[in-house]
Amino acid sequence: MDFSSLYTEKSYALDITGHKAKGRTIEEKADDLDKYINQEVKATQSVVVRAYPDKLKMTVKQYRTLAKQESMLHQEWEGQEYYLYRTKYNIMEIEIV
After folding, report:
1. pTM for the full model?
2. Where in the chain are the domains?
3. Which of 19, 9, 21, 18 is nearest to 45 (CA)?
């Protein structure tokens, strides 16, 4: 049976722009941001299961902090560049605000 026609949830962005990374070094701040993103994505599945976010909104400072993390991906496809963030739950396109 195909229930795809019953799916009505719209995709959405996970906005982390308000999170202040903790830590003294860039590595500690990047680890804190990474943990926060994973916690927030996991939380979307806690009580009421929702679709995973497909975009990740972050500030330029947050992007620079995370730039060297393994979770950051850069892909080119059909002449377009994509900046992605991978968690153990999903992959999201990065949107810098």
Report:
1. 0.70
2. 13-96
3. 9
Burial of residue 30, with CB atoms counted within 10 A of its CB: 0-12 exposed, 13-18 middle, 19 or more buried: buried
Residue 1, CB half-sphere, CA atoms under 13 Å: how many? 2
Q: Model confidence over 14-41: pLDDT tens digits? A: 999 999 999 999 999 999 999 999 999 9
Q: What token pair was written down for 64?
A: 């620079």
The amino acid occupying position 68 is K
Calpha distance 93→80 (Å, rounded):
13
8 vs 30, 38, 47, 77, CA distance in Å?
A: 35, 25, 18, 29
Distance in angstroms (rounded) separating the CA atoms of residues 35 and 19? 12
Tokens linked to 79: 């002449």
How far apart CA 33 and CA 63 sit, in angstroms, is: 10
